[in-house]
Amino acid sequence: MKAFIISSLLLTSILSNSFAQNTWNVASIPAELKEKAHAVIRKSETIFTVKNLGEATEKNHRVITILDEQGLQYASMTLFYSKLEKVNNFEGVLYDSNGEKVKKIKKDDIQDGSAVGNGTLFGDNRYKHAEFKYAIFPFTVEFTTETTNKNLLFYPMWFPQEDEENVAVEQSSLKIQMPANLPLRYKSINGLAEPTLENIAETKSYTWQVKNLQVYENELYSPKWTRYGKGVLTAPNEFEVEGFKGSMKTWKDLGEFDNILGKGRDVLPENVQQEVKQLVANISDPTLKVKKVYEYLQSKTRYISIQLGIGGWQPFEASYVAEKGYGDCKALSNYTKALLKSVGIESFYASIRGGSNERDIHSDFPSQQFNHVIVCVPMKNDTIWLECTSQDNAFGYLSDFTSDRYALLSTPEGGKLVRTPVYKAKDNQQNRNIKVALAEDGNATVTAVTEYTGLLSDDYSDIKNLSSREEQQKHLYKRINIPSFEVNSFSIQDEKKRIPTATVKLDLNVRKCASKSGTRLFLTPNLMSAINTVPPALDKPRQTEVVLKVALTETDSVTYQLPKNATLEFKPEGIKFENRFGTYQSEFQVKDGSLLYIRKLVRNQGKFPPESYAELIEYYKKVSKADRTQVVLKL
């Protein structure tokens, strides 16, 4: 009997271990989840437990099967921490394709380093990182982490598939546990089911979960994932960070918290006040006063990130910036406000989500969704926006880093949500004038002058101001849309206007500008602006709306000085068409041995229904075909 009991226990132990070891067997993944996938999230479980207004713990359990080399990025885990965030636990396990344990992360395998970048002077941000270097596909990694967070400005934003193409999800869940006396606000996005609610003792929990999400293929010109993926945003009504209490129940409340953090930090040294007042003493126009103050800021300060505790959200005193000559976006914006205040001009601290390709915030869900600060100066007939971190930015101009999105102004009455300027097709222009001396062999010498304005000028201004001469030339070689050429000389100049400009002058040798066949030359007059790519057709109905972010205007005037003995054998007719996405027109003129090609393209900005994608393809097909129109010369 005793032997039987021992055998039974042994068998139970073996079966239990076998089950545990084979839980993550790759063979158990449903076939439809592996289709087109590089990785499958087998299980992702997040439990966010709020203890009080100022503290929470977060536990994460994440198991991912890596199917091929393109999924290797998921074989690692990075946790960021700081004075306000502590890492309590960090574990990792590697399994082979059968679910057998191969390796467990040891303490020495976990890197611990500074997360302070080169542009940061002071910071307490750090990271812990671990990864499995394994190449026998498929395999599975499991990470278990726990952190304590004392920065409750941020609650979880949960998107089960994140923003990753070719990743499937077997099961994923988010659980938020709140004290019964602290309400939780949430916004479910794109059909995510309502949470399961549970009340236990003095705690109320909310649980969202999804299962069996197949991979999605990112569609060209689609909105940000936070606009069409399933997910949820969460936030408290009240919160506390290092003794500072605030509310984000409304945008007005959240803006008031910025006022609290900035209170008493706008005091300037007397000598700085007098210096700035002297600068504007003879200026009566308020806009010119603001411009003078902005130029003073740019000449006296530089951007350096400072991330220390609540200092990550609270601006340093204006006197500190005046003394040191540097600051982060918060400190420099606060300093600019103080400078303007000293000359009698009111301005507002403006929180914004900065980034050239960043998602905009959800305006119907008051919460901390920002990562940058600028300054807004309301005027009688205008509103001036100031990017205070740049020494090269044009006065009153916002690049694609902060334009066309929401900003939260911290006014004396509290927060006010507004939109930043939108730069339209008349603002974003590429105007090109080209002179071409065409030889009988088809080669040519070319001089080209291109003026870029608005958002189209940004890259060239950056190249001019931030790159060496050698680097500038390398950038130009990448951007010049000619198959075979050499740059003899070039120059880049920029002008800092409200709509800035950058002018690029080029002197080129172009090989085979025209193709020679016997006694004929085949010439494509659109030398530098031709659109050669067309959006791909879809093999299934499009799911998302079509988003064209930037409106623009392109004009080209190309004059060809033809070879002496050349005659025009074929000249195409002019082309003109228009639809909801834009307009296109071109024409050809011949006079005194020269051919003049004129082209104008206007692209509209906007959001269009999914079914319009086919129309967009046809539009680009017509543009591409028109851009490749040829002229035939007889020698």
Automatic annotation (TrEMBL):
Domain DUF3857: 54-214
Keywords associated with the record: Signal
Signal peptide span: 1-20
Transmembrane segments: none
Protein's UniProt keywords contain Signal: yes
Entry superkingdom: Bacteria
Keyword check for Signal: yes
Domain Transglutaminase-like: 277-379
Gene3D superfamilies for the chain: 2.60.120.1130, 2.60.40.3140, 3.10.620.30
Pfam family for this entry, one: DUF3857
Name the UniProt record assigns to this protein: DUF3857 domain-containing protein
Source organism per UniProt: Arcicella gelida
